Amino acid sequence: MILTTVDTRLAVHTLDPLADARWARFLERHPRASVFHTPAWLDALRRTYGYSPVVLSVSPAGETLDNGLVFCEVDSWLTGRRLVSVPFADHCDALVDEDSDADAVLSAMIRKLRYEKLRYAELRTVRFAGELAGAVRSQHSYYLHRLDLRPSLDELFRQCHRDSTQRKIRRAEREGLRYEEGISKPYLDAFYSLLITTRRRHQLPPQPRSWFQNLIAAFGPHLKIRVAFKENTAVAAILTIRYKDTLYYKYGCSDERFHNTGAMHLLFWKCIEEGKRDNLRTLDFGRTDLDGAGLVTFKDRWGGERSVLSYTRFTESESSGDNFGSQRDGWQERTARRLLPRLPGRVLISLGELLYRHVG
């Protein structure tokens, strides 16, 4: 399919990143490509939630792919039809380097938004998404933490906060915590049980178990579930994915009764040790809400770089988007937050299975 832009010298083409082998080859070449651009991530989204991925590119079919902006088309009776780049990703840059190509691709995105009468198109970019004439734009910001793994292991330990992070890593050793990793059923069981506990504590339903099963199937050995045990009890777990020279932390969960043992600090330190052993360049800690003071502090204390991550929504009018949840903390959400911690586990899981495909 070709989406002609206002500048008729440039035509924007669409391609299926799950069927077109050029996409994966292009990602290997592009320095800003992340795990969230990959066919594996997109395939897990399709299998779990039914989202259809599409790439907009100035590169014609049959030629080398030199640029691309990937979206998933989310079609929900509850939250409407929209383009998201991409669902459940912390960030997903537009891999378009020339200004003229970027203008063409973004203009084609707006044309698709208008022609198909979508609610909005959302970009989750590390770099700012520029202005578009005739489009209404709203933004929401997060923090993004990344740790440079190139210094020596001793240097990485020294740059950690002495009275918190260093102390907790040593505390985990004194507590005799056991570290294990894998992707087999026992590790997924331990992770998902802790996830339910953690999401209940945060007054949120857990993601569907099938989402994690599909991520494991898609990424294979590049994904790890890392679990800390106190004797025979799983007390903390994180899920990480490796892509190129970056290790991505994506999900974490814990038993609050064991927070003082340093279990989460042990898991992240094991990530750093692995990164050094395998000559990785970056540990990506993922996004954090600006008002999430506790988690922001936890990530700050590893000594990495904190930057601002902006999500941008383009709409036809102010009323066609939800302005990034400007009605948060209304009576509906307050009621839900009071009820969720009281729901039985099976009901909470079923609620997550029902709702997450509509969240995107």
Give an account of the 3D structure.
With 360 residues, this protein is α+β, with helices and mostly antiparallel strands. A 13-stranded mixed beta sheet has the order 1-2-3-4-5-6-13-7-12-11-10-9-8, sandwiched between helices. Helix 3 links the parallel strand 5 and strand 6. Helix 2 packs antiparallel against helix 7. It starts with a strand and ends with a helix.
Find the structural class using helix and strand composition: alpha+beta
Taking Cα atoms only, what radius of gyration do you get, to the nearest Å?
21 Å
Structural shape = globular
* Major sheet details: 13 strands, mixed
Order of helices and strands: EEHHEEEHEEHHEHHEEEHEHEHH
Count all strands and give the number: 13
What is the overall pLDDT average? Answer: 90
* Percent range of helical residues: 25-40%
Number of helices: 11
Q: Report the sheet-strand fraction.
A: 25-35%
Short key terms for the protein model shown above:
360 residues, alpha+beta, 13 strands, globular
Outline the fold blueprint.
Elements: E1 2-4, E2 11-15, H1 21-29, H2 39-49, E3 52-57, E4 69-76, E5 80-85, H3 99-115, E6 121-125, E7 136-148, H4 153-158, H5 162-174, E8 178-182, H6 185-201, H7 209-219, E9 223-230, E10 233-243, E11 246-254, H8 263-277, E12 282-289, H9 293-300, E13 305-315, H10 331-339, H11 345-359
Parallel strand pairs: 5-6, 11-12
Antiparallel strand pairs: 1-2, 2-3, 3-4, 4-5, 6-13, 7-12, 7-13, 8-9, 9-10, 10-11
